[in-house]
Specification:
Elements lengths: L14 E10 L3 E4 H12 L3 H12 L5 E4 L3 H4 L4 H27 L8 E6 L8 H9 L6 E6 L5 H15 L4 E9 L10 H9 L2 E10 L3 H6 L9 E4 L3 E3 L7 E6 L2 E6 L2 H17 L6 E4 L4 H11 L7 H11 L6 H11 L6 E7 L3 E8 L3
Parallel strand pairs: 4-5, 4-6, 12-13
Antiparallel strand pairs: 1-7, 1-8, 2-3, 6-7, 8-14, 9-14, 10-11, 13-14
């Protein structure tokens, strides 16, 4: 059995107060079985290939996914046209999540000192960060950081950057915004690797507001803001594994971005996750907030950490069921779900991506 412990001494680690989360998805919602039928027609599947595609979808754990455009409008677009669609749709979705996070945290737009934008599904300059400054009414002197092309663990790096900004400046208020339009990279290639990606990925955005932990007293007493304090977010740890460099990849082609996801990924995570958590926690988290990369990855995490479909992994499965894998923003959806269900702190956020990489952060009680 794994030790039943809590994150000892984590409250003394450098960190920042997490005070609000927001999430958003596009209005277009499509049932998984409808996507399966559409893709089977586009790929002209039959025989064993059709059977394989049906099995992949049946085992995906997904009921619905959201997208900014119907699949048949994306499939034959060049990468240039896909990037034009990203530039058109990503800012609005990001703004919806950011506005919700600001509102939930009781933070005014003009209070934000640092803006961190995370995305791996599109590029433009001026980009989403500039549109957020204009659309939200953020200060023109705000410090802006873009974190790009890091895949599903990008939110961890965005949050870690925000923690650093808050640790460096006791007056800092950081807004982290993750936005991903994965649907823009649906492709005609019916290779099994692309089939897996096509069955999992979807569109969404999530945002979080952080303040320096030196502002904790003001927040709690109401002298500075009427903001709820979710917990203290610490810098966490990461690990670039010695093997698996080509098991998860994300590369730009002339027909969108191409994703590969090897069967070795969940096998390796099952072998490595328990050791990773043990080495990076002096004691054991009460809740695990795990990026739902797919059902196999969640099964591996459940087995490695002996969660028995509880202690947070049920929230990961629920987010996967309702939204699919939205790349970087998904782990914040899971955190919001865990908080909604009253799961206790301390919690460990875990996400995985190209490298093969494991990244983590911890959320501990603020006092």
């Amino acid at each position: 059995m794994l030790p039943s412990r809590t994150l000892a001494n984590s409250h003394r680690a450098p960190g920042a107060l997490l005070i609000g989360i927001g999430t958003a998805v596009p209005s277009l919602s499509v049932r998984q079985n409808e996507i399966a039928d559409t893709m089977a027609t586009i790929w002209n599947l039959s025989g064993d290939a059709l059977d394989r595609w049906r099995r992949i979808n049946a085992g995906s754990g997904i009921d619905h996914r959201h997208a900014v455009l119907p699949i048949d409008q994306v499939m034959d677009l060049s990468t240039q046209l896909r990037m034009e669609a990203y530039e058109r749709y990503a800012p609005g979705l990001a703004m919806n999540a950011a506005q919700q996070a600001l509102e939930n945290s009781g933070t005014l737009a003009e209070e934000v000192t640092d803006l961190i934008v995370v995305s791996c599904t599109g590029f433009s300059a001026p980009g989403v960060d500039v549109e957020l400054v204009r659309g939200l009414g953020l200060s023109r002197s705000i410090r802006r950081t873009m974190i790009g092309f890091m895949g599903c663990f990008g939110a961890i790096n965005g949050l870690r950057t925000a923690v650093g900004a808050c640790a460096a400046n006791s007056e800092a208020v950081a807004l982290v915004v993750c936005v991903e339009l994965c649907s823009l990279h649906m492709r005609r290639d019916d290779d099994p690797q692309n089939m897996v990606a096509s069955a999992l990925f979807a569109d969404g955005a999530a945002a979080a507001v952080l303040r320096s932990d030196e502002q904790a007293h003001g927040l709690e007493t109401g002298t500075e803001a009427d903001s709820p304090v979710i917990g203290l977010l610490t810098v966490g740890a990461g690990l670039l594994l010695d093997r698996g460099r080509d098991w998860m990849t994300w590369r730009i082609t002339d027909a969108g971005f191409a994703m590969t996801l090897s069967r070795e990924v969940p096998v390796t995570l099952r072998q490595e996750l328990r050791r990773f958590v043990n080495e990076n926690c002096t004691v054991w988290p009460s809740t695990f907030v795990i990026h739902p990369g797919g059902p196999g990855i969640l099964d591996a995490a459940d087995a490695a950490l002996e969660l028995h479909e509880s202690r947070g992994i049920e929230c990961s499965r629920e987010v996967l069921r309702r939204f699919g894998n939205m790349s970087s923003c998904t782990v914040l959806f899971v955190l919001a779900e865990a908080l909604l269900h009253g799961l206790p702190l301390p919690a460990m956020l875990l996400a995985f991506g190209p490298g093969l990489t494991i990244e983590s952060l911890s959320v501990v009680p603020s006092t």
